[in-house]
């Protein structure tokens, strides 16, 4: 670090640039001159010369992030050029400077390592709590270093320079053992340190990435020398480290560090040497003692992982789990766990297998568990952790022996295996797969090695599932799911276990595997993880197989099989599964075939170890073990037995008896005892003493040197167990135990010898424990004739049942616990089943799932007719009963203002979202606009109160009422609301605004609609057809209307019911904004309320019609029918409507049914006239008539009203038609009508009526005004068709109304028959005639002479025409045909929208908004959250949602491609309708992939908008506080 001496201006400039932390302008200035070659070289040299100064400034900087970015901005331009980098390396010692600067930088934050020997440790590590590491301040320097190492020539220099390698290993050793975790044994840590983030990032960036960079240059044989150098200095650094921490042979207990970069450098270079450089492994491996030390710390990590997952580190807080997860997480695993396991595999392949196996069980603290006794005391582990630690140890052994990632798999095979493992855990999206497949962390070396691309492997192993929308409302993205043959052949549980960050993912993979087997019919039960054949081992690692063929492992396997068979505690199915997996691995990888078997059986010399004769699993499997001496606590049941007399060895196999006699003398009985720890200690001593030749001859001691913590020695005594089993016999008994049947195993080769020749039988590849046992026995028989014979012998002896074990009190407890659990489970199942059936019945009434058989529209509407009163269930108190005056029941409803109807257009072509300046959308052709214009026109010429009854409002801001179908007592609801108010944890809705969720189905709601105490008996009476004539009925209707003032007594008096009805009416009014309720010229006039109330009914009927698709052809009850509560709503509205009396002189009923005599009275009056009957909206008249009649209404009166109104409607149709046709046609019709006028059926012939209308209207100035657009040819068919279309909307509304008021089904029909079917359903068609000669006029039923009525109605028009001839026609022609409401059509490619809108200026503030958004209903461009467009504290999107959708807004956020929904005071993110080629969203456009419209999703969005179900389907709502 020399002193800087400046010789030129450039150096001075750079110095001050660094001093002031790289001001942006200076950086740009210095970089702009780079194209000049001389300057470039000079500048680079100056930059290198100031490198140390840069590091010092960076360390002191407060804005290290910004500074880092600017440094890299410069250095990346200098060091990415290989030529330049090489030149500077040669001339300026760039590598030396970089490594030294990094070393100095880290030296400033070192602390003493507490690993192993806290007092005397000489090792120092970086302190992960320092800002330098916490803020990643080092990254610009490390990234420069990685950058220059990507150049072959520079890396070669680095790998050849011994001094540099020493310094670098020195640097790496600062990270060795950092962030040490000490297990808390007493209380929970007070402060959970989060330093592990810094530690993992530092190891990945500062150690692993440069390592991967170097490895990328060691790919060919010529680079062997580099590997030797790295390995040599790595081992030296490791030796120094072991010395510094005073490490001998036992790691300190309760400590773990996840950071061993030196071990990992060593491992990765070894792997590369064997895989790519054809180096002989043994020439670069250290001696046995060093290997023993090397394996300890990585093994300690594996054991600690198991401890952490067993909750033994729970007092260290969540962060320790975080470390365990990060260690195996996809971005870290191939720089952390993979090298660690590979290093352990290398050590295992070179060390004594017995030593290695016993080390594993000792590290995992389960040595004491491996005893044949039924009870034991574990001095180092609580019994609750024993099971999971034993599972951990066995699983680790399976991983160690099965993984071939560095032991022979090609890169393509690795990629495929990784992908299969990820897909088996869960279906994955393309981007998450890319993220989850471990990649080479060095960005320069390409994402995935190997010749096959990611895409080709993906298409080979997975099927694409297109994005779908599930009815629950969760939107699925495009997913990849494993192909069937992958589940069948390639599912590898071992790989899944290695790669799962969360333990639940292993279970998820198994569940999916189970589901696949069930679906494909391969296996019905609960399968065990399948055994998968492995890639062959690379010859360098053949030693690994010795682990499977060592006595220690066989003793462990034997013991565990025995314990499982005897039901000892703390063993699980998982343990058995792993034991069988290890046995199978051993059979699959047997060493060179046994000696001639007969000879092996006779030659007993090798049997000085009393357990097994040899080390080959194939022969050890059949070896019978008779007695075992065990050390047990004095309380154990085994102690009570007498040790057998020495003569009890007659049970031995005859060939062995002679040998056993001699053994007995030295061994006081034939019991076999075994201590793992003692064996391991001895092995270690042997190796340390280098005394190998003697060591092999030492007979192992027969006494147990059991290691236990001093002072904690339990009272152990020796007992001798009679076992008389071999591994084979234990397996066969296990088969019986698993199947629950005696003699369930029958050797398959006795039936079919071919089994032995082709043992690969598909029926064994999937199955449970029994299948696994059968597969193992078959493999054992295939490998040795002797085994085959012994299996047959064992099967011949009828096996006695497994002896029932003596149950100790503690085990009894656990058994009782199990039984209790089982019972509790059964109870739970029962409850769940009951709940499910309840839920099902609720689903049928409430959910949006169209089911053809669910014709029960709301249970309320069509309650059985024989019951006298409707019965309701209260979902809060659970009681059933009728709704009464005093204790009314109500329906849970959601009231919302809606402008959906107003968005209907009468053009069939769909409106597109504008993406150019030319395509603007004007709202003048929408339903709402045209209705508005009509009302305004009427109000100009006619009396206000009469205008307000001639139309309906609510096309914009109408109130829509929907229910989930559940009822509750209104007093119960009040107490429920109180409890919600006191409950603070509510999210997503506001109780103060009356919002709540239905207590049963959790659907969003905001009011309760009282149910009118209904009486169903009368209903059946009213429906009986009456024979009264039309005139009588008309009179009755009039009389009933006269009674307006007289209410039923109950209503006038204040009852609970009437109070509730009033309060719900207030709710309905307050749901929509004032501007949508006030249309009168005199504010607050009662006419307004009157209009509003019947319009609410109209809105709900019209919307239900829209939900049914705009017509009633489908018939039946639709989902809309299930959500509708028109019956209850009608009672509430009717009660309020009857508070307003209609002046009898103006009662429209009379105008429709009686010809008036005095025609001139009106003209004389000064004020504006009434609206002529022909200008009135017939559907509105219908609602007014029905709602002002006393409820409940009789069916015959209802039919009478419809008949009368139909005559008016028909006349309106004729009038409109007459205006449309040309003068000649008019003359023709007039004459032809006049001819037929006097025929009998004149009143039911449209020709006659049309002629009459024309002649009446000709009296005024109606036809004189300029011609309207003429319909050229008018033939009779056309007229008939026109009239039917004109009347249909009214018939549909009326049929719906009849359906809700009187029950009864809606018939389904073809579209062309809809008119006739509805007419007959409504009782307009006297007797259903055959269709060919049917005319719409035959439905007419005039109460008085048709010609008189028509003349009277036409005269009103004529008198109006005299004053305002220009308006007559426009008001006559109503456009009844509307298209269904639709959202704007979006372009195919998202880019089209993005390009146009993301630079578009806002019309209000003329700036380009930061967050532009566009309304998908009307195409308005708005600023999201823009303060510039705020009006009275409302931001623009919220304002627009109120103006455009009466509180509902659907906006596409241009810069994020997502859609947000605003509903009143809440909003939610809906998701995106634009997906990439793999069916994934790209929220916030982060991934930058081209996006295309997903039509299905857009349809769903539209459907939710039209059906008003945003609140029910989307779950994540939050308040927007008017800030959007």
Quick summary:
This protein has 1524 residues and is an alpha+beta fold. The chain is 49% helix and 7% strand.
What does this structure look like?
With 1524 residues, the chain is an alpha+beta fold. It is built from 62 helices and 23 strands. The strands form 9 sheets. Strands 17-16-18-19-20-23 form a 6-stranded antiparallel sheet. It has a 3-stranded antiparallel sheet with strand order 12-11-15. A two-stranded antiparallel ribbon has the order 1-2. A hairpin with a 6-residue loop joins strand 13 and strand 14 (1004-1005). The longest helix has 38 residues, at 809-846.
Question: What keyword list fits this structure?
Answer:
62 helices; single chain; elongated; three-stranded antiparallel sheet; 7% strand; 23 strands; alpha+beta; 1524 residues; six-stranded antiparallel sheet
Q: What secondary-structure arrangement, pairings included, does this model have?
A:
Layout: H1 9-19, H2 24-32, H3 37-49, H4 51-60, H5 64-79, H6 82-92, H7 94-107, E1 110-112, E2 124-126, H8 131-134, H9 139-149, H10 152-160, H11 162-173, E3 181-182, H12 195-215, H13 224-244, E4 255-256, H14 261-275, H15 281-284, H16 288-309, H17 318-328, H18 337-350, H19 353-363, H20 383-402, H21 411-425, H22 430-436, H23 454-461, E5 462-465, E6 479-482, H24 484-490, H25 493-499, H26 504-519, H27 551-565, H28 573-588, H29 597-602, H30 617-620, E7 625-633, H31 654-667, H32 676-689, H33 692-697, E8 716-725, H34 727-739, H35 754-757, H36 769-783, H37 785-796, H38 809-846, E9 872-873, E10 880-881, E11 889-898, H39 927-941, H40 944-947, E12 958-969, H41 970-982, E13 996-997, E14 1004-1005, E15 1007-1010, H42 1016-1022, H43 1030-1042, H44 1049-1052, H45 1056-1071, H46 1086-1107, H47 1119-1123, H48 1126-1137, H49 1148-1153, H50 1161-1164, H51 1178-1187, H52 1195-1220, H53 1223-1236, H54 1246-1257, H55 1276-1302, H56 1314-1321, H57 1346-1363, H58 1368-1372, H59 1390-1397, E16 1412-1415, E17 1421-1423, H60 1436-1445, E18 1448-1453, E19 1459-1463, E20 1466-1471, ...
Antiparallel strand pairs: 1-2, 3-4, 5-6, 7-8, 9-10, 11-12, 11-15, 13-14, 16-17, 16-18, 18-19, 19-20, 20-23, 21-22
